[in-house]
User: Fold these one by one.
Assistant:
Number 1:
Amino acid sequence: MQEHEMHAEFIEVERGLIELLIQKAGKPLVAVGTTSLRTLESLYWLGARIINNPQAFENELPSLNQWEAYEHTLLPEKTEALHALLNFYRERPTAG
């Protein structure tokens, strides 16, 4: 499994969606399709990376590698991760 390289996908998510996910936290959420599911997972892991390393995206566009989820030592609550991601975008108007 470690030798299989997952293909990368570009996602574009509006701030409003992140705000809605925070607002609806704790309520059932159904992702329809693998891309939708991977997008939701990626939003969490991007926020987790910001919490674990606030300078993570200083000089690069936010992106994740396929094993990054297994490298985090601090696993924040989902709303904490989403807030970190939302704040990242609010502080960097050109980031998203």
Number 2:
Amino acid sequence: MMAVGYSALLQLVLPEVIVIIASLCVLAVDLLIVRGMETRTRFTVGAVVSCIGCTTAIVWMLIAPQQANVFDGTLVISPQTQLVKIALLVLAIFVILISIESTFTPHVGEYLALILFATTGMMFLVSSQNILLIFISLELLSLSLYVLAAFDKRNAQSAEAALKYFLFGGGSAAFTLFGLSLVYGLSGSTNLTRIAEATKGSSLDPLLAVAIVMTVIGFGFKIAAVPFHFWAPDVYEGAPTSSAALIASSAKVAGLLIFYQVMVIGFAGAEGSSAWGSYVPGWIPVIAVVSALSIVLGNLVAITQISVRRLIAYSAIAHVGYMLLALVSHTEQSFGALLYYALTYALTTIGAFGVVAVVEAKIGGDKLSDFSGLSTRAPVLSFCMLIFLLSLAGIPPLAGFFGKFYLFTSTLAGEPNTFGLLWLVILAIAMSAVSLYYYLQVLKRIYIADPPAEAGPIRTPIVSQVAICLIALTVVLLGCAPNLLLGLLPHAIQLYRF
């Protein structure tokens, strides 16, 4: 830990300050300069200002890398945390780009500013080892997402989804706060490392067990893990497409990384074991059960969906189950696998939502039938969707395949002598095979089904098409050459150590 003055502290949080300034500039430009223009023009101008702000923050972190641990872990800055923040900003840029053609709201400045506020919350979230700032950052992120989910006032589903999201979110925040308050009472500290040192013991304290369960419930909601997933399908279906993309991508990345941090560092010493034949009480068996339930329910329920948005929602629940395997094994290798998987999954999901946004705008819906014959009407868009869905299914040589392979092998390495986690990996592989079925249902509609008789070519907006193609190219590159990302993650577990 180090003491810093206000000027030094400002330099440490300058990327977040830049994003906040960009959000205020978006509000000012929309209110004072482009208010009388059409919605698409306002979205374009606002998106340019937002992207400039995010890019400036990225450039600052690249040219002025810093390393610090201030205020007892309240703010932890390292090359690894900066890398994660850069990834979050890149994901936010892609979300903004796919929203440029939107016409669902006249409040353009407010909408884009909320995306930037949410991104700021994520950036603080992944840069802290203090439960107080973690909770504050979570609430900044959550409040922004609640409003973003309800932004389409002309759609009753959007209001319903946001209400469910808000009610479940409020309940989960109460669980999280209660669990973290118990942790503070047991340890007398808000620093995760000090909490672990104070709560270690030969047996699991009953109050600590309650705190662990409360914390898992709170964070389980944030990442939409079973059985805390009920809000996700409705929000993915009812929220504006770009809002759903943000919730499904960068918000999930930040939530998973902070969940890993809290469990692995804050509850070190209370892990237990879920290895076959050697069960030990602790938080790992709880995570293993949540992971298995998410994998099974997410994949099986996705088979029955006729809405592509809801299909992506249940698919996302299953992918959360896969990513929780990293917590079950919690090794240095598994954290690197989690980071690779989460970032490539988020990128792929934004691309899939980008395609859905174009189809909804041009055809009017997101049902499977709306994708019939899309390959003849929008061949470039269809090929990108092919890449996204096959990557989500884990087909080589795409990023999703290497992500799953890396994650599964790192999970097995968590119990190298007994292969005690083999049961969980076998379940994940089997359910991955099931997932291929419903992804192929979408591709069958796109490439095999005939388009409607009166249907003509779909003209994809140039910005959306460029963004979607760029995402697809990145997914292919990261699958063929995973070291492009993994090479930036040496000793990735040091992200949360100092």
Number 3:
Amino acid sequence: MKVLIDYTVFDIQTHGGISRCFSELYSHMPPNVSATIGVLETNNVYLQNLGFHRKGYLYRHFLTQTNFLGKRALFKFSYNAAHGNYKTFDRWPSVNRDYCIQLLKEKACDVFHPSFYTKYFLKYLERTPFVLTVHDMIPELFPQYFPRNDYQIEMKKLLIPQAAHIVAVSERTKQDIIDLMKVPADKITVVYHGTDESAYIPRTKMPFPYILYVGDRNLYKNFGLFFRECVPVLLAHQELRVVCTGMPFSPEEQYMFRICGMSNRFVHRWVLTDQILLDLYHNALVFVYPSAYEGFGIPILEAYKAGCPVMLNRASCFPEIAGDAAIYFHMDERGSDFAEKFEELCRLTDTERTALINRQKERLKRFSWQHAAAQLAQVYQKVTQ
């Protein structure tokens, strides 16, 4: 069975959850699935690690590997003309898009799997079924944060009814699709994310104790509420800081820290490698996930792998993913018991803390990319029957 995974998310992301998910599924496919990612060249780090060419590869090898006057213009003209893009002679070619279209025209797959919400492929499918992965329904559930004509919302409305089957990344996401899109339950299969199963060996340490916050801090992520609840915790624990990954603090965040006297208590760290990220988890007193909603929550698995205690907002899919392998708190605009639950964590004995870490390790065994790829292969098989 031949499956084509399209280029879209790999052109959008150099790294990130969705592109990592698809690259892991691709690399763990069972022998009965011959999978192709429709990418000829890319800046995506996960595909580069799998041996895909860096972006610009075709240009560098066009006619000669050396530059010469007019090479860029000649490359664009010849490539666009060869792919029938007569209106875009002056634009850099859409190499990966053209490649996917070419493969669809050649009927090079039994199943097509777009990696994100896009519609370019619909007119080339003919009778080839496509499987759509829905990672979350955040724009639909939090419309106050998104424009009415949000691209994701519009594309889901178009694609979900036409898909041969839907893949959801959690039971929570599946139920949201059923409720919001009126999709029959038997048209949706839950395929959980996995985790990298390579051994983790700690390398670096931090010079102070800290709470770890990972990822974006905007909108439904509840970072503002998290900050509010952290202030009394930090006042009670003068040696404690909060380390945040993601983008550097915005001027608004810096102002919020400053007026509360917390400027030196919130620390930003860039994460350039998996090793750096896992070391941040490993050395943290606790990883806190205050988000109001996530489709799955990959940072939970990352923290489990690094042996870091996890505190989760009791919301969304978090109890589904973490089970009894976390400490839960409540956090929304009406109030929170985060500070109380944090003190409970601090009072854990060494034995109790070790028991929590051991529960997390056991829970982690449920999430495997190999198992996820096998489940996805079954979906592919189903839609071709």
